[in-house]
Structure formats: structure tokens, C-alpha cells
Amino acid sequence: MLNTTFFPDSVPPRPTGRYAHIILLRETDSYALFQTDGELNTARVHAGVAQTDMLTRITIFKRKQTTPERLIGRELLRRYGFISAEQAPEGKERKSDDRGVLIDRAGLPICDYNVEFCKQCPDCIMYGFAIGDAGSEKSKVYTDTAYSLSAFDVSHEAFTLNAPYEGGTMSRKGEVTSRINEQDHVRPQTLFPAVITVRDPSVPLFLYVLNNVLRTRRYGAQTTRTGTMTNHVLGIVLADGEIFSNLHFTQRIYDYLAERSMLDPVQPIAVDAALSAAREVAAVLVKEDQVAVSQHLRGEELGGFLAEFSGRIRDEAGMRELLQAAARDSAAYHSAYIQKKGKK
Ligand SMILES: [Zn+2]
Q1: pLDDT value at position 227?
Q2: Closest CA to 160 of 133, 129, 130, 185
Q3: Rounded to whole angstroms, what are the CA distances from 106 to 74, 116, 309?
Q4: How do the domains of the chain map onto residue ranges?
Q5: How far is the CA of 198 from the centre of ligand 1 (A)?
Q6: 3-state secondary structure (DSSP) of residue 319
Q7: Which SS3 state, helix, strand or coil, does residue 55 take?
């Protein structure tokens, strides 16, 4: 089980060297789009660490990973009544509680994303906020760009998106529609090794972040039927410092597969093979890192922990209890370190 004694009872005001890492393999379940200005994001990097030839990989930028996870958490906070579903009102309509937090008519804190953060909910405290002169809180959830394990060439497909007329034809009154668009999509079963680092969380706030990772299914630009992903959790590492990067992890998995002749340059990488390679490689990399590891939860023990955790959050009462504990810890941080700052 997770070693809960590693975590601080309350979130400290300054870094205290408690890093909880979630090691993942993100897998696309449908055609996905991670793009800027209509182009898929890519990077040209070494294929592996031992395999030094260059490879173009699809990339998922940091915010394209954290934003959907944040929004899932915020949706749950609204669903279970920890923050208001209302937008921040103007002028006379504004009402605050005794902590100076904007509230709605029912007395619930209003947390208006990127407009007016409440500064006291689990989302604000863990993922951070910046509101001009009104203060900021650094994110305690670190993510980095993720790289596809396989090359761009085998990881994408160009789609021609037709927008036919109602009759199903592409022409009308003799003229052919120009409503045809070509767009590169990330193929299903493309894999993105990733590490999410959570700094100095209390147990409930760590579980809040973990729940977001386990539940989030939609990433990138999307229609209602595309852009779904599964996050395979391969390990949780509790250490006194940061562990390996996403790129290094990706390259070492690539090396592992290449050394065993498990890579076919024209075929996507088999998911099962990549999952077991990633597990092996993560164990080696954790040992190579210059950090003291309190726990590396993996294998059957991790499976047991995740099964128990999933059981809890599949139940409304269990979910409410988890959010309640997370909200209590984030509010305590607010009253100890944020509210005071605002009064000066
Ligand atoms: Zn908030």
C-alpha cells in the first residue's frame, strides 16, 4: 500500500523535498489532435540514449496534459458542492465570506477559471493560479512535454475531412464544395511515456491529483468522439527529489525495445510490449537517479492499491469524502499562507 507517512500532514509554505511521482504510459484510444496552428506538434530528438539516430516524434505540450486533468477535478468539485457553478458576478452582486473568498447566494466559493480564482480550493492550491496583482500560487504539479514512443511516420494519419451537402454529394448546382480539409491525426494506440510530479502534497491532495489522472479521458483538440486517451499508471515513486524526465524515459524504453528487436520501423509499437518494457525501464531509472527513494509502489502492490482506490472513488460517498479531505487541506493552506498575504 501507499506509504502515507511520507506525506506532510499539511502543505508546507516552502518546498520540503517530498516528491510524489506518478509514472504513466498515456495511450490514445482514438484519433487525437495535439496541435498548434493546424499542425501536429513534433520534435526531432535522438531515438534512444544508446540509439543515437534522429527521430521525429509527436509531442504533447505540458498544458495539453494538465488542463484537461484540472478541468476534470474542477467538475467534480462543482458536482459535489465544494465550489460554485456560477461565474464571478460584477459590482453589487459580489459577496464574500469571512475569509474574503467570493461566494454565491448559497454561500459556495466561486472559482472562475482563469478569470477569478478562489485561491482556496484543491485545484487552486495544487495546480496554482496567477491573477495579476491579486497574487499567485505556483503549481505543485509538475509536468513536461511528452514524446511519442514511436516515430511520427507510424504515429499519424492524414485525414481528409469532407463536409458534404445534405444530399451527401460534394457538389451543388454544378460547383464542387471547397469544404474539404486535410488534417494530420495521432493514431490510436500511440504511446506517450510521462511522469507527473506532485510536490509536498498532503495525502488527500495527492489522491485528488491521482484521481484526476485516472479519470481524464479527453485530451487535445477534439470533437465529441475523438481525442480519448487511457492513462496507464505504472508506478508511484516517493522520493526526496525529482526523478527522470519524460524524454529520457521515452528514449530508454525505445533502447530497451530496440535491443530486443521489438521495433519495426513501419509498424506501430505493440502496447503490451511497451507497457512491460516501461515497467522494467522505470525500475532501472529510479535506481539510477540521484535521489533517496522512500517507496516505489509498482507491480502487484500498485495493482492492489489502485484497485482499492478505484473502489473508493466509484462510490459517491467515497468520492465526496476524498474531495472533502482535499478541500479541508487546501482551505487550511489558504488561511495559513494566502489569506494573510492578502491582508497586508
Ligand atoms: Zn479555486
Answers
A1: 84
A2: 185
A3: 18, 18, 31
A4: 4-160+181-343
A5: 18
A6: helix
A7: strand
In single-letter form, the type of residue at position 37 comes to D
Q: How far is the CA of 5 from the centre of ligand 1 (A)?
A: 27
Q: Which amino acid is at 103?
A: I
State the DSSP code for 166: T
Which residues are CB-contacts of 238 (< 8 A; sequence separation ≥ 6)? 3, 6, 18, 19, 20, 21, 293, 294, 295, 296, 297
Cα 123 to Cα 44, 232, 326, 333: the distances in Å are: 34, 22, 9, 12
3-class state of residue 288 by DSSP: helix
pLDDT of residue 344: 43
* DSSP β-bridge partners for residue 54: 46
Query: Is the separation of the CB atoms in 326 and 10 below 8 Å?
Result: no
Contact in structure between 88 and 131 (CB atoms under 8 Å): no
Q: Which three cell numbers stand for residue 305?
A: 492499491
Ligand 1 centroid – CA 80 distance (Å):
14
Distance CA(143)–CA(250), nearest Å, equals 14
DSSP string across 189-217? T-EEEEEEEEES--HHHHHHHHHHHHH--
> Residue 160: what are its φ and ψ, rounded to 5°?
-100, 120
Distance 163 CA to ligand 1 centre (A): 41
Q: Which residues does the chain have with pLDDT short of 50?
A: 343-344
What is the Å distance from ligand 1's center to 24 Cα?
Answer: 26
Q: What is the pLDDT of residues 32-83, one digit of tens each?
A: 988 888 889 999 999 999 999 999 999 999 999 999 999 999 999 999 999 9
Running DSSP on this structure, what letter comes out for residue 242?
-
Q: How far apart are CA 204 and CA 168, in angstroms?
A: 53
Question: The C-alpha cell of 47 is what?
Answer: 531515438
Say if CB 96 and CB 84 are below 8 A apart: no
The whole-angstrom separation of Cα 49 and Cα 57 is: 15
What is the 71 CA–ligand 1 centroid distance (Å)?
A: 11
